[in-house]
Every structure is written in structure tokens, then in C-alpha cells.
Amino acid sequence: MSPSEVFDPDVLTLPLFDDAHRALADEIGQWCADRAEEWASLDTTDPAAAGRAVLADLGRSGWLRHLDPDRPGSDVRSLCLRRQALAYYEDLADFTYSIQELTAAAITRHGTDRQRRRYLPGLADGSGAGALAVSEPGAGSDLAAAVLEATPDGDGFVLNGTKTWIAQGDIADVCVVLARTGDGPGPLGLTTFLVDCDDPGFKAEPIGAIAPRSWAELTFTDVRVGPEAVLGERGQGLVVALDVLERARTTVAAAALGFARRAFRLARDHARTRKAYGGRLSDLQLVRSSLAGMDVKLSAASLLTARAAWAMDLGRDHAKHSSTAKLYATEAAGEIVDSAVQIFGAAGLVAGSAMERLYRQIRSLRIYEGSSEVIEMTIADAL
Length: 383
Description:
By secondary structure, the chain is an alpha+beta fold. The chain is built from 11 helices and 10 strands. The chain has helices at 9-12, 19-40, 47-60, 76-89, 91-110, 113-125, 237-273, 285-313, 319-344, 354-361, 372-382, and strands at 130-133, 149-153, 156-167, 174-180, 190-196, 202-207, 215-225, 230-231, 275-276, 279-280. The strands form 3 sheets. A 4-stranded mixed sheet has the order 1-4-5-8. A hairpin with a 7-residue loop joins strand 6 and strand 7 (215-225). Helix 4 (76-89) crosses helix 7 (237-273), helix 7 (237-273) packs antiparallel against helix 8 and helix 7 runs antiparallel to helix 10. The protein is globular. The mean pLDDT is 93.
């Protein structure tokens, strides 16, 4: 597949993007295409090792350099273009890239200069891995229900509890941890901390998932951190977590576009060449209708995602746009991948095939950074 197939050229020519974005789309598309064969041979039976390898490659190639505090940052439209291309070619590359971005965003937006200079250079060159540890066994979408305790101890804190479903948790060098400091009821009693993953009492246990990604359950047993570990203001942890997750929603929509466009291209090409009923599969009206529906959904998702990213970059009210893009793009991507598998028939169910991998990879996007049901409530509140 050529890099030009990753993006919708009609959307890229709109005033929502400028020439720098279009040049970036060509560059990241070509870079990913050049690595497609190498990524196809990744040993994903060990997601942690594969994730580390991909992270190092992203760092060496400069795709994370904007995370360095001494370099200009990246706008959201550029983040979206990178995630769309990475997701199109390799799920693990997008996954690794996105978690580095999440971790760095929390530190960049809410950290002190000392915190930024300590952690961001490693995240930017790929030598350090980050993780955002907010979810717990009893606190997924409802982050205000977090119970991991950060008990004051002298001038620092002692952390005890469990975080789960933490992306990159088993390879992370630093975690942004949401913990309860008891400064007030519910959300007012939460604070975020920067925890070094080699601190005594920290343990990461890998979690297997339907798609081979680096996930883990984190256990904190008397993990002591100093006052310099507080990220943002004490008692404002939920504000930090929600700020980072809300900004990431538009990029999740972009990743969904990458997965969905790959599935569409595979299904279309298969329908063009597969012989059936004396002709080709693409001659059948129901197959043609399915492909047309997939294309319409891709166009709508592309426009919604571009609008949301544009609004964020211009500092306009974007919360509803981000939620709308994330909800529509992830739901549509699930439908597109499912339709593509249907066009492939039994061939789409073969373990290890591109379609089978896409079918497993796309499912989680409707859950993380706000499940579809939570996003619908957010949109309804905005109405």
C-alpha cells in the first residue's frame, strides 16, 4: 500500500489544514510505509519487548522530539495525522506513540520546569517510557471514584493501592498516578503524582488483551514519594487527568480513522479481485452498497476529526467537537472493520491475517479515553 492511501486527500486540501500539515502527512505516511515490512515481522507474543523496540525507533526517527521542553510543541492536527498514519500501518506503533503523548502532555501542561526537564527529554528520545495510571478495578470511567491512597508522611506521601488496565504500565519508567490525598470529598480529594517505576514497592504485572499491547496492573505497596512528585496542585488531580484525556479524544478519533481506512482499502481491493458468481465480488450490489456505506462513514469521520483538531488548535470551544469526533469515528470504525470482515468471509477470520488483527485492535477504541456511553452523556450535557 502506498502512503497516499492513508489520508483523504480532499479533506487535507481544506483550509482546516495548512501546507505544513500536508507536508507532514506525506512524511509520516512514507516513513510508516518504509517500515511496514519490518513491523509485520514484530514478535507481538511479547508486547512489552515489541513496544520497547517500536518506541526506540520512534525516538531515533524524531517523531517524539516535540515532547522535549527545549523544542516547539506539536499542534493537535499534527498529532492526529501522526496517529492516523501509525494506526493505518501498525497498531503497536500508534499505541506506543499515543501513550508517550498522554504522559508528556500531563507533564508539559501541569508540571514544574524541574519536572519537565527531568522527564520529558527521555520521553522525547524514546529512551524512557511513560504511562498514565488513572484507572482502578472500581474506577474506570468514573475517575472520581479512585481509592488508591497517598497518605501524607513528613513532607512527602506514601502510596498504597492498585491501578489496572494501564497502557505501557509494564515497560514504563515514569507513571502519572492519580491518588487520593483526602483534601476533600470525592473529586476534591485527588492529586496526581509523578512516580518513578523503579521506586521500592512498585510492581507491574502484565495483562493479556485481545490485541497484543503492553497493558499492566500496577501495585503500590508503601511507595514513598517526595513533595516534588506532586504534579499540578494538590487536590486538583481530577482536573489534570480529565484535561489530558479530553485533549486526547480527538487523536483517538484519528487513530480510528487509520484502522478503518486500512480495513476499507483491504476490503475494496479484495472485492475487486475475488471471483464470485461468474464475475467479481465487487459486481454484487450488496457488496457495492457495503463499500459505499464504509466510504461515507470514513468521509464523515475525517471531517469531524479535522474540525475538532482545528478548533483545539485555534483555542476555540472544542469539548463538544472532540467528543463528537471520538464517538462517531470509533463507532464508525468498528462498523467498517466488521463490514470488511464480512466481505472477506472466512478469509477475514484467519488468525494472524490483517483483517483478523484489525478486528481485535479496533474494539478498545470505543472504551478508552471515555467510553461511547460516557461520551454520549458529555455531548448531551453540552446540549
